[in-house]
Amino acid sequence: MSNQITLLEQAKHGELKITASDFNHVAEQHIVPVTLHEIARAATEYPIVFVKNSETGEFQSVAMLGLKPGQNLSVKDGKWLGLYIPAVVRDYPLGLVLNPEVKDKVWIGLREEAKEVSKTEGQALFNGEQETPFLEARKKALITHFEQDQATRGILGFLAEKELFISQTLTVDVAGEKRNINGLYLIDEQKLNSLSDEDFLELKKRGLLGPIYGHLSSINQVNRLARMEVLGR
Fold it and tell me: What does the alpha-carbon distance between residue 62 and residue 118 come to, in Å, rounded to a whole number?
């Protein structure tokens, strides 16, 4: 996501408005983070895989929007071609400002330089000193997304503890060209099926079976991306 984010303040941003996004801010992003709560919908269009932070060792669930860096097959001429837009994309140009020293509180931020931010067009953020219903709704969506993201981090940590992630190279045929996609992790079906009854029941209690199977079935969507790349040439 482009542009530095600053704390949203009525005194500073009281006259600003937000226009509809043209999605060019993610036009070159081939993966975007998604929470486990999004997988059911996102998996119907995009391959859902996992990536690992080399510094922290933490896993993150992501939607593949392209088959190589710099390629987003879901954005063309500023329009989103798919039906489901990931929450992190919908949030823009708003976002959250976090203070590592205050872990139980977040603040709403704004990317002031984004072209979606205007003084003349779009939805107003404030009406005098009061927040508009538009801003209140956007703030609610941001907080919900943040809470789901935090829950996802904890759950992926649990899956990592159970050693359910396996490094995998995806091979896709793009108009006769074999292309390998590296650096990805999938849920290891063999280990999943060999879990003890107790651990499997724990996954069920946590509501993880749906996201896990959604992720596994979504891998076939990589072929859909290959067709989109060929048609877009």
Answer: 31
Indicate the helix (H) or strand (E) that contains 190. helix 189-193
Looking only at the bridges linking them, the beta strands covering 6-7 and 123-124 are unpaired
Classified as helix, coil or strand, 230 is helix
Closest CA to 30 of 64, 76, 74: 64
User: Buried b / exposed e across 194-218, counting CB within 10 Å, b at 16+?
Assistant: eeeeeebeebeeeebeebbbbbeeb
Q: Which of 141, 129, 50, 140 is nearest to 87 (CA)?
A: 141
**Helix or strand holding residue 53 (H, E):** none
User: Per the structure block, which two tokens stand in for 80?
Assistant: 């989103």
State residue 158's pLDDT score. 93
Question: What's the whole-model pTM score?
Answer: 0.91
Q: 109 is written with which tokens?
A: 């931020």
Q: Is the pLDDT of residue 99 over 80?
A: no
| Res 233: pLDDT | 53
If 0-12 CB within 10 Å is exposed, 13-18 middle and 19+ buried, where does residue 118 land? middle
Strand pairing partners for 62? 33, 49
Q: How far apart are CA 122 and CA 128, in angstroms?
A: 16
- In the predicted model, what is the mean pLDDT of residues 70-82? 93
Q: How far apart are CA 194 and CA 172, in angstroms?
A: 28
Token pair for 172: 């896709």
Q: How many CB atoms lie within 10 A of CB 190?
A: 7
Mean residue pLDDT of the chain comes to: 93
User: Residue 132 and residue 174: Cα distance in Å, rounded?
Assistant: 48
**131, two tokens:** 């927040």
Q: Rounded to an integer, what distance in angstroms lies between the CA atom of residue 49 and that of residue 13?
A: 38
